[in-house]
């Protein structure tokens, strides 16, 4: 609000991401009074669209994606006047670019935020066009959606192209998982509580599991998804970023420079998975038909109407080779069409060293801290306790539960809103540096290459299950098992 003016320019402005996530996030920012009075929102798309038709499309999206009662007529009237659809073919530097440049330059004092919700192969060209039309000022910011590239080489090329026109301080590589409320709370939990940080290492922690499970299938993203697959779509970014936040050293200050430097050290310490280890430590799956939430669903190949070896499930046993994490496996998994939608980080502690209670008192379960990203955001601590109503000592696992929705009045989580406001405020703490993105690709490249070898085929799993049985076997070999919701 203290900015003189703000121009948010969304390339891919009428696309799925824009309508589903960005417009609701911007509207919520409006609702909270966080948009400067002179804010304009430009939605760039190849097809031309009349202003009224575009406003109606955004309105429809808001009705669908906002929570009940969030849509306020008065605020909508303000918000809708900010919306400007622009028809522009990025690939052609022509009079469309000129007329867009005129529109933007009508308010030269404004800070421009360019949001690229388009295929990464167009990032370089878009930046070059913005530069050619002199639309980049020292205050401009650019937001890049993931995945950046499809391997290390392509990611480096894209980062280089963007770097020709934008300084790293003005590049926001967005990973919406970092905007989720519980993820930010993970930092607060770790770095403001002596209780946990003193136990946060391989001396006390037995294993870490990070699961991003989805029930949806391909949705409308057939072409994109079949080219990407789970490793590129979820592991390269969301899963590895979460792993970094769990594993990083406490930064001396929680600012962008220090957080990003610590995350990078974690990525550099990831033990390479190459050669035979790829077969031993990773599992790749693809869903067949089955039942999800009580309804029959087709298999991946039927949804796709084509042959494909793209994985819709990935599981990895990873290690971080440093002093803190020596010997602690990090199990990562993600999949589509699984039994339930949930995203969780499980920190499982080691068993107690001495059993003072006899066996008759019951089986001890190791302590677990469960950080739940969605749904029902919160943090649970699983402890052992005595059943108080019994005379003889009998032990039972109990749960301490911090439920965000019940604890914080008016709590509602919108990761994109949070991150867009960070871009506007110029705070890069929750965005990835190019070195992180490239390090993550470098670690995954050998796995990608092996998985995409013509002889490699994903393991089938039934839709509505917890993934291929090979993923269970991966943990069982080490005496472990996946922690699924009850
Ligand atoms: C996106 C992936 O980054 O995250 C999608 O491209 C996935 O495939 C989505 O469905 C999951 O996000 P969320 O916030 O719904 O868990």
Automatic annotation (TrEMBL):
Catalytic activity of the protein: D-glucose 6-phosphate + NADP(+) = 6-phospho-D-glucono-1,5-lactone + NADPH + H(+)
Pathway annotation from the record: Carbohydrate degradation; pentose phosphate pathway; D-ribulose 5-phosphate from D-glucose 6-phosphate (oxidative stage): step 1/3
Signal peptide: none
Binding site for NADP(+): 46, 89-90, 146
Pfam families associated with the record: G6PD_C (PF02781), G6PD_N (PF00479)
Assigned GO CC terms: cytosol
The protein's name in its UniProt record: Glucose-6-phosphate 1-dehydrogenase
């Amino acid at each position: 609000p203290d900015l003189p003016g703000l121009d948010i320019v969304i390339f891919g402005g009428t696309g799925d991401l824009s309508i589903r996530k960005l417009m609701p996030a911007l509207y919520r920012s409006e609702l909270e009074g966080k948009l400067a009075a002179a804010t304009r929102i430009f939605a760039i798309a190849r097809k031309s669209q009349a202003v009224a038709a575009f406003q109606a499309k955004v309105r429809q999206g808001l009705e669908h994606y906002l929570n009940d009662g969030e849509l306020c007529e008065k605020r909508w009237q303000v918000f809708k006047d900010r919306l400007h659809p622009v028809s522009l073919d990025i690939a052609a530097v022509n009079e469309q670019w000129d007329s867009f440049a005129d529109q933007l330059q009508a308010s030269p004092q404004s800070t421009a935020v360019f949001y690229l919700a388009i295929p990464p192969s167009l990032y370089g060209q878009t930046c070059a066009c913005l530069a050619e039309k002199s639309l980049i000022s020292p205050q401009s910011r650019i937001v890049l959606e993931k995945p950046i590239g499809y391997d290390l080489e392509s990611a480096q090329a894209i980062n280089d192209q963007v770097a020709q026109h934008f300084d790293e301080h003005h590049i926001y590589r967005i990973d919406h998982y970092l905007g989720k409320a519980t993820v930010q709370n993970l930092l607060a939990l770790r770095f403001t509580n002596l209780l946990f940080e003193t136990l946060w290492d391989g001396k006390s922690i037995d294993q870490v599991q990070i699961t991003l499970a989805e029930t949806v299938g391909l949705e409308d993203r057939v072409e994109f998804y079949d080219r990407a697959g789970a490793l590129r779509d979820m592991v390269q970014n969301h899963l590895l970023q979460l792993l970094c936040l769990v594993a990083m050293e406490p930064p001396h200050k929680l600012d962008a420079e220090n957080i990003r430097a610590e995350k990078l050290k974690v990525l550099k310490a990831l033990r390479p998975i190459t050669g035979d280890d790829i077969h031993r430590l990773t599992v790749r799956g693809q869903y067949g038909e089955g039942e999800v939430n009580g309804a029959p669903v087709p298999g991946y190949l039927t949804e796709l109407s084509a042959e494909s070896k793209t994985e819709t499930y990935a599981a990895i046993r990873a290690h971080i080779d440093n002093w803190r994490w020596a010997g602690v496996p990090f199990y990562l998994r993600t999949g589509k069409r699984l039994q339930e939608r949930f995203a969780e980080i499980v920190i499982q502690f080691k068993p107690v060293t001495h059993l003072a209670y006899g066996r008759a008192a019951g089986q001890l379960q190791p302590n677990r801290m469960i950080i739940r990203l969605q749904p029902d955001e919160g943090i649970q601590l699983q402890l052992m306790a005595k059943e108080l109503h019994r005379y003889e000592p009998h032990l039972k696992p109990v749960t301490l539960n911090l439920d965000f929705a019940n604890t914080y009045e008016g709590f509602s989580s919108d990761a994109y809103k949070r991150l867009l406001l960070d871009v506007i405020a110029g705070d890069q703490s929750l965005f990835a540096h190019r070195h992180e993105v490239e390090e993550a690709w470098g670690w995954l490249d050998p796995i990608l290459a092996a998985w995409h070898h013509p002889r490699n085929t994903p393991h089938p799993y039934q839709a509505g299950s917890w993934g291929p049985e090979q993923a269970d076997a991966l943990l069982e070999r080490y005496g472990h098992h996946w922690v699924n919701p009850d």
